[in-house]
Amino acid sequence: MKKTIKDIDLSNKKVLVRVDYNVPLDDKQNITNDKRIVATLPTIKYLLEKKAAIILMSHLGRPKGKVVPEMSLKPASKKLGEHLNMNVKMAPDCIGDEVNKMAKDLKSGEILLLENLRFHPEEEKNDDNFAKKLASLGEVFVQDAFGSVHRAHASTQGVGKYIKEKAAGFLLEKEIQFIGDTLKKPNHPFLAILGGAKVSDKIDVIENLMDKADSLIIGGAMAYTFLKAKGFGVGNSLLEEDKIDTAKNLMQKALEKKIRILIPMDHIVVDKVDFKNKKVEASAKIQKTEEADIPSGFIGVDIGPMTIQRIAPVIMESKTIIWNGPMGVFEIDEFAKGTIEIAKLVAQATEKGATSVIGGGDSISAVKKAGVSNKITHISTGGGASLEYLEGKKLPGIEILPEK
User: Fold this and answer.
1) 47, 203, 240, 295: least CB-packed within 10 angstroms?
2) Known catalytic residue: 61?
3) 198 counts as catalytic
4) How are strands ordered across the β-sheet holding 355-359?
């Protein structure tokens, strides 16, 4: 287990905290969803209790190493101040003389938010000199940006080389506990539900779960590659031709390891859909198919009722459930039923005592849409990071932290 902020002395120290305030903004720079800011409050409140002087750093958007005023973190400093009912100071940059002075003058119990790290190209290049300048601002480094720990950037990994005392914040600790520890020691039966568009995005996840899971449910567009590999017709559905052999090999491996792989046995299909604008064309025909074959000229867009019926008992009997990726084009209401039903079933299994972990932006949106967010054991704050964690990869922003 990694060291956490409870394992080190923080009193009256300058604490440099990497947070993930990559929040969505509207065209007037208003934050439209502040959950990432809210997620850091337990760590920040704890540091305030310990009378630390807190220097927060984050990126926002993709300014590509240039100053883009619309991607300033000023709205985040204002929103954080509202949540804490205190003034959060805003730095004009993340390095430089003025920033150094602001950090030096920062008193215990005060907070300073640095300006967008990605206004400097050195951040994403993990530039040593840039990391050293950031590190010079604090005496302790706290990693609490799970959404960014899979990236070896100056603020996530580089600074760790130049600050001796470092630890995980509460948000990161929770992610390590629920994703890392759940994978290491799952209660059985252990079920993984994988959806989304591409098999290629999930190959490493499936490979890693082969040694741990009892069942795998495959949905979303990636299921059509598996269906094609089994010899079924998939019509005009999204298909990765170059991954058909991979899907065959994965199913063969599952057979040898006695792991159930469940793929859709019926579908909701449509002949015309406007994916770009997320709507069904007025002239489109939507129909259910009663078997795994998708008729020529049709596109699979959701799992059908027979599939839901078949996988419901598998979900309900599971003691550990990991879910990443939707079952269909759930952004379009007509094709959201399969994903929403899965979300409700996972919530019911959790109420019966299962541990459920959900990662990936679309799966998180799905549990919200289904109104069951509060019934899930853990909803991950990092899409790409949670996926790489599920793949069993070592994440640079976590690896830099010492063990207890």
Assistant:
1) 295
2) no
3) yes
4) 260-262, 215-218, 190-194, 320-324, 355-359, 378-379
Quote the pLDDT of residue 181: 76
Residue 207: pLDDT band with limits 50, 70, 90: confident
> Which position among 109, 233, 361, 392 bears the catalytic label?
361
CB 182 within 8 A of CB 174: no
Q: What is the C-alpha to C-alpha distance for residues 403 and 399, in angstroms, rounded to an integer?
A: 9
Residues in the chain: 404
Residue 251's nearest CA partner among 297, 198, 210 is: 210
The 8-class DSSP code of residue 22 comes to -
Residue 349: pLDDT above 80?
Answer: yes
- At 45, list the tokens: 């409140």
Give the active site residue among 109, 383, 384, 392.
Answer: 384
Q: Domains (ranges, CATH) in the chain? A: 5-170 (3.40.50.1260), 178-390 (3.40.50.1260)
Q: Mean pLDDT for the chain?
A: 92
196 is catalytic: no
**What is the model's pTM?**
0.86
Banded model confidence at residue 94, pLDDT cuts 50, 70, 90: very high
Instruction: Choose the catalytic residue: 36, 118, 151, 166.
Output: 36
| Residue of 74, 132, 198, 319 with catalytic role | 198
> If we measure between CA atoms, which residue out of 16, 111, 115, 45 comes closest to residue 75?
115
> CA–CA separation, 271 vs 281, rounded Å?
9
pLDDT at 215 over 90: yes
